[in-house]
């Protein structure tokens, strides 16, 4: 490889690491808010891919089990910088919250932040970020009456039937509706989705994903060693959960509290900390692992719960560009993208709005933060800092 090409690749990988790390330090608010942060940083500011490609990538990750926002981040890293780019994008976005939650687990008896005002301020930040994301995505993905109707169906269904599989059902029905009834838009010029991963390697990742899903439970039974059992539990949690981080938390409680890995009180304290730190909610696994077996347990738990997400997104991306350009698939994706807007609106109401906007002063503060993002174009990290400080002030004067 020529020296110039090596230098360019190094700069690209370094940029991926730095940008994803900044997002990992400032992206508060859970998986839905993360998609808003990604959209602002990767699409609007840096233009690493076009709006349609980003929407299709989000739709793909909504289809897959696991942490959707983390998979979107990994996918962007892979498309931008290959397999190593995906790894760096994952590490940058994930490690800050992993480190914070491992430290919190190690010093759990010294902390009491459950009702801290700055945590409430960060929840208000999440409301502003999601509202901003909704405003942008609605204009792009629901331009006509048919897709507005799909989005409305998604909102109603997601709010009324709140179960693990509701989101998957909404996406599947919306895709079928789009395939049957929507008309394909006039052909546009899309940026080529060049995925620097071979289809053979992608297929190997999918085979490994399935093999581990079936082999790990057998290993943990044949060799009853606590590390195997923990790795198996976290891998299954990351493989079988649809709906993102909020869904995995009660699943992890059922998996680890009755088994004696940690107490109910310690679990709830960690839950509060997980809501307070930036990055993906799946890093709550790091807290559980560290509470049970120290910092090594935290790292093993993190690898185990995120490994399925990595294998799935790397395994499907090389086939995605071919599928999304198929006319039938494009019609289905038009329906799915409209449903994603509806799911986003539903999540904006519950849990984001219901847990953050508790009084008129909260709404006023959210409006200010929204204006900072949408109209004044203030960097997201400044908005996050403003939210934390403002939340502390609101707790004092309230």
The low-confidence runs, each spanning 5 or more residues with pLDDT under 50, are none
Alpha carbon gyration radius: 21 Å
The rounded distance between the terminal residues' Cα atoms is: 62 Å
Proportion of residues in β-strands: under 5%
Number of separate domains: 1
Quaternary status: single chain
Order of H and E elements? HHHHHHHHHHHHHHH
Task: Tell me about this structure.
The chain is mostly helical and 398 residues long. The protein has one domain (10-188, 195-398). The chain has helices at residues 3-26, 31-45, 51-63, 68-106, 117-141, 145-160, 166-181, 199-222, 226-240, 245-256, 264-276, 284-324, 327-356, 360-374, 380-397. The longest helix is centred in the C-terminal third of the chain and has 41 residues, at 284-324.
In short:
It comes from Bacillus methanolicus (strain MGA3 / ATCC 53907). With 398 residues, this protein is mainly alpha-helical. It has helices spanning 3-26, 31-45, 51-63, 68-106, 117-141, 145-160, 166-181, 199-222, 226-240, 245-256, 264-276, 284-324, 327-356, 360-374, 380-397.
């Amino acid at each position: 490889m020529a020296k110039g090409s090596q230098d360019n690749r190094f700069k690209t990988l370094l940029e991926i690491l730095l940008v994803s790390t900044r997002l990992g330090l400032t992206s508060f608010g859970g998986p839905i808010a993360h998609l808003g942060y990604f959209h602002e940083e990767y699409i609007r500011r840096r233009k690493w891919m076009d709006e349609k490609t980003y929407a299709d990538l989000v739709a793909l990750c909504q289809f897959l089990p696991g942490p959707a926002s983390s998979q979107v981040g990994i996918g962007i890293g892979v498309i931008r910088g290959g397999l190593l780019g995906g790894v760096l994008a994952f590490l940058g976005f994930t490690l800050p919250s992993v480190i914070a939650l491992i430290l919190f687990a190690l010093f759990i008896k010294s902390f009491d932040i459950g009702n801290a005002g700055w945590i409430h301020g960060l929840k208000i930040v999440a409301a502003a970020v999601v509202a901003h994301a909704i405003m942008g995505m609605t204009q792009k993905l629901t331009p006509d009456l048919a897709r507005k109707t799909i989005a409305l169906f998604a909102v109603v269904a997601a709010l009324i039937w709140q179960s693990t599989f509701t989101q998957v059902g909404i996406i599947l029905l919306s895709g079928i509706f789009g395939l049957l009834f929507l008309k394909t838009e006039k052909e546009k010029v899309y940026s080529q989705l060049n995925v620097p991963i071979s289809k053979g390697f992608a297929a190997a990742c999918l085979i490994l994903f399935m093999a581990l899903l079936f082999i790990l439970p057998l290993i943990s039974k044949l060799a009853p060693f606590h590390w195997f059992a923990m790795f198996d539990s976290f891998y299954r949690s990351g493989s079988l959960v649809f709906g993102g981080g909020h869904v995995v938390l009660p699943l992890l409680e059922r998996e680890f509290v009755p088994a004696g890995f940690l107490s109910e009180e310690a679990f709830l304290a960690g839950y509060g900390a997980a809501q307070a730190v930036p990055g993906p909610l799946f890093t709550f696994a790091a807290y559980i692992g560290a509470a049970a077996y120290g910092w090594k347990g935290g790292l093993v738990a993190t690898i185990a719960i995120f490994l399925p997400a990595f294998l799935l997104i790397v395994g499907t991306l090389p086939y995605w560009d071919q599928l999304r350009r198929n006319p039938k698939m494009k019609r289905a994706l038009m329906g799915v993208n409209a449903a994603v807007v509806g799911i986003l609106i539903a999540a904006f109401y519950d849990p984001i709005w219901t847990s953050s906007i508790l009084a008129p002063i909260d709404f006023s503060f959210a409006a200010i933060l929204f204006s900072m993002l949408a109209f004044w174009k203030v960097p997201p990290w400044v908005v996050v800092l403003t939210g934390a400080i403002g939340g502390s002030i609101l707790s004092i004067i309230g």
